[in-house]
């Protein structure tokens, strides 16, 4: 993305026709008409204003995932931008699944609005995406997502791969109709409240084609050198277990919220929706001409194929992965001033079923917690299914899974954690930056849309 003047950006949400499956045309809804949207490459401390203009037929709300932002710039689901000339009415009375028929819960910005991002946070791989009440899943599926990278001196000073060898990879699955258009069980919003249709996507929608930065099964020519790959799972519901064939390891240097204290090596990485893994892969271990593939070992058929790297040439490589990376002070359990349990569970069955937190479907404006600014709390997440739990504003450290030490992939500061079926995940959450209304939710977007969301107020 290029600024219109220093610190100010403008993006237009609009429909565009692109070629994703060769020989076919797909209409995407994109920031600046692209999918993924433009990548913002910004520095810590550089206050940034992004004006989002909506030219789509639907309202939108933009959330910067992982951003520490004032509450009115957080992309609250009922804080909407509506295209000029289009009206907005909240969902009809009795049918508002989330009890938000009341107009007082909605804020409508006609045409465009500014989001303010102070970026007073460490270097990290953030991403922005739509967050509209009830419709996040179909709108992200159509393309409303992109990267925002925060860089800082601490990260720059490390000898990690840089420039052309530092690559963000947005991984997501989609399904397509024969003519190339996106297939989604319920792209027509009027279908959303019909029982039966809800069932079709209750558990979350998966596609059978994996896209990387919007392209199916792409090839990247690489030097026989180290690369820093910033992996993001931007899928609505699919989880990946990423591995390299014929071989290779991931040296993880960062997580959701930036650098780890020290590198962690993995043969495979499970990535739930919303999570980021910043890894270094060394292609010099392979001969020139070799093809190294990134596969999803949880998938079969085309859902197994993520992308290919073709080793093109031998080069000199000055990069390295140092033993010490960032300053990550481990939080102590004793630092928690409160303990809260959030249980992510399905209630009811069939068309009347809903995804809830602590038995409650989402109600905007009704906070489930009021943590104090500049304190740490222990938040325990439990659930009945795979629920990637995401907390806005506050970063956290995972300290236990089922009472045992967390997984190697739980290292560092996170904002999204994969809570597996019937698991008990303990996190220490730091509330810093701003007071006000924020939210947590399941990042399986269909669960989020079906009310698996809750407000919390930082006081
Ligand atoms: Cu990535 Cu509240 O979302
Ligand atoms: Cu869920």
Q: What's the CATH C level of the largest domain?
A: Mainly Beta
Q: Which ions, cofactors or small ligands are bound in this entry? A: CU-O-CU linkage, copper (II) ion
Structural class: mainly beta
Helix content: under 10%
Radius of gyration, rounded? 21 Å
Mean pLDDT over all positions: 93
Q: Please tally the helical runs, counting DSSP H or I stretches of 4 or more residues.
A: 4
Per CATH, the architecture of the largest domain is Sandwich
**N- to C-terminal separation?**
35 Å
Q: Strand portion, in percent?
A: 35-45%
Main sheet specs: 8 strands, mixed
Q: How many strands appear in the DSSP assignment? A: 33
Q: Indicate the overall shape.
A: globular
- Total domains, how many? 3
Going by CATH, the homologous superfamily of the largest domain would be: Cupredoxins -  blue copper proteins
Brief account:
With 459 residues, this protein is mostly beta strands. The chain is built from four helices and 33 strands.
Describe the structure.
There is one protein chain. The protein is mainly β. The chain has three domains: 8-153, Immunoglobulin-like (Sandwich), CATH 2.60.40.420; 163-314, Immunoglobulin-like (Sandwich); 333-458, Sandwich (Immunoglobulin-like). The chain is 4% helix and 45% strand. The chain is built from four helices and 33 strands. The protein has helices spanning 136-141, 153-156, 197-201, 445-449; strands at residues 8-18, 26-31, 40-43, 48-54, 62-65, 79-82, 107-110, 112-117, 124-130, 145-151, 166-176, 182-183, 209-212, 215-216, 219-224, 226-233, 240-245, 250-255, 258-266, 268-271, 276-282, 291-296, 305-314, 336-347, 354-357, 367-369, 375-383, 387-391, 395-401, 416-419, 424-431, 436-442, 453-458. Strands 11, 12, 13, 14, 16, 18, 19 and 21 form an eight-stranded mixed beta sheet that branches. A hairpin with a 6-residue loop joins β24 (336-347) and β25 (354-357). It starts with 7 loop residues before the first strand and ends with a strand. Residues 189-195 have low confidence and may be disordered. CU-O-CU linkage binds next to β5.
